[in-house]
Input
Amino acid sequence: MKDSPHQLTPWLPGEAATELLRAKAELVSRESSELAAAAHPDVLDVLRELTRAMNSYYSNKIEGQGTHPLSIQRALEQDFSSSPDIARRQRLAVAHIKAERELERRIQSAAEVLSSQVAIEAHRTLYESLTEDDRRTPDGLVVRPGQFREHEIQVGGHAAPTWQSVPAFLLALDRAYGQSRPIADHLIATACLHHRLLWVHPFVDGNGRAARLQTHLALLPSTRGLWSVNRGFARRAEAYYQALASADAPRQGDLDGRGNLSQKGLVTWIGFFLDVCLDQVRFQRVMLNLDEMRMRIQALVTFLSARNRSIRQAAVLPLHHLFTAGPVSRGDFALMTGLGERNARYLISALVKEGVVTSRGSRAPLAFNLPLRHLHFLMPNLYPEANTDNLEER
Output
């Protein structure tokens, strides 16, 4: 029976293991900081909103309840499927996006972000906007937003602690992780908490979603919202679960730490977590490479011009300028094309219709955009599911 917080030790790896992990964590932090200079801030804001939708899609996909990216986009525009099951998953995706945005506004302190209260708030904020039917589990239980479970539960081969002991376990997590640390140590503690929270399994359902929301918040000083750890987890879902399970293992003899659980298993999980982070950072650096972006823009313009004569190669230079330097007036965009007034106007109108550029009004500046339907040109393989056929019913 699991009813005492000491059964969840060690809270952190030993110093020797930490030194090795710290080097990798510092690499994640350093390479992440370089992303902020890779494009104009307005373009990065567009990327952040795209990443927010990706966070929702991949977190729900891990739970086996994902819906197509285009269905998520429609749901954000209040266009829901006529299929009850798909509409329910759309509402869950939107709830995740709204919860992430709301939590980012409320949670600011690095010490606060690793507290159990944030996990509770993440769960509550995610589920409180959903109806009781949308919160019902396949077993018929209703998830109560931010409320602890009141029965015993087993997830796969893991028997969670007794429900009465959940508050004591969360208090122990707060004592272990609820403090400010240097960024590298913060990343290591974030990985540890991610596993330890899932091990406690405080809620009837939604533990994984709540843990990933909290992890997103904890990683914000590094990600700046520009890359998604959920994407990495989902693309390596089997390895994700295996690495989590390795940290569930009991201590393997006197050389495996001094806690109740395996220190070696915990180090394996942290190493996997940091590898996923580093992989996502480096992938996003490639996506934001200025020279490669110019070639991708040219490929997209070539594709679009084959089906719309108003779109010409003259669009490549001003589009790349929007990416690197930010919004410009319609007049300046037209000048950069070198086209006559009428052809430039037709070109701008066509690009707006394709979603490649956006504008808040007929006289407002033009801004670079990352539309889902053309994302496979502009950021190939970033969100490949967005370019698949959406077979879900409307």
User: Anything to note?
Assistant: The mean pLDDT is 95.
